[in-house]
Specification:
With 145 residues, the protein is mostly beta strands. It is 12% helix and 49% strand.
């Protein structure tokens, strides 16, 4: 099996859908589009190039974060392993689709503003482990600006 990892900057074009596999694992999937835009110096305007469409599948810890954070229209950056899925439609037509098994998904902060909600931190179990301290909410807001 090949392993091609890449980052794709684009827009969520379908609302994420959560489902469970027969093995009981949860997965959340959505489609995204990445548009190429180029500045045409001759005309002084931006022109649209081609569009890359792909399905993004998120597993394990990503499921809850994506479910709580993303919806259709959101600008995102997705990073993961690209694969080609080949299938036959109900009409018997052979098709292929580009899929990403995401290992990280987040907002594209060049096109939106996001407020982080950090989860609970688990205290260290022994003296050798380092514990990150929780900052008071006021301090977090001051740091964020």
């Amino acid at each position: 099996m090949y392993e091609t990892h890449t980052a794709v900057v684009g827009t969520v074009i379908t609302n994420p859908v959560k489902r469970s596999t027969t093995a009981g694992e949860e997965v959340i999937s959505f489609r995204m589009a990445s548009n190429a835009r180029r500045f045409d110096q001759a005309t002084g305007e931006w022109t649209d190039g081609g569009t890359l469409y792909l399905s993004v599948n998120c597993w394990r810890r990503l499921v809850d974060g994506v479910a709580a954070s993303l919806m259709k229209g959101d600008p995102i950056v997705a990073y993961g392993q690209l694969r080609t899925a080949e299938y036959t439609t109900k009409e018997g037509v052979e098709r292929s689709d580009l899929e990403m098994r995401a290992s990280a998904v987040g907002p594209d902060l060049a096109r939106c503003v996001a407020k982080l909600e950090r989860g609970q931190r688990v205290p260290a179990q022994n003296q050798d482990e380092v514990v990150e301290e929780e900052r008071p909410e006021e301090e977090l807001e001051a740091v964020a600006g």
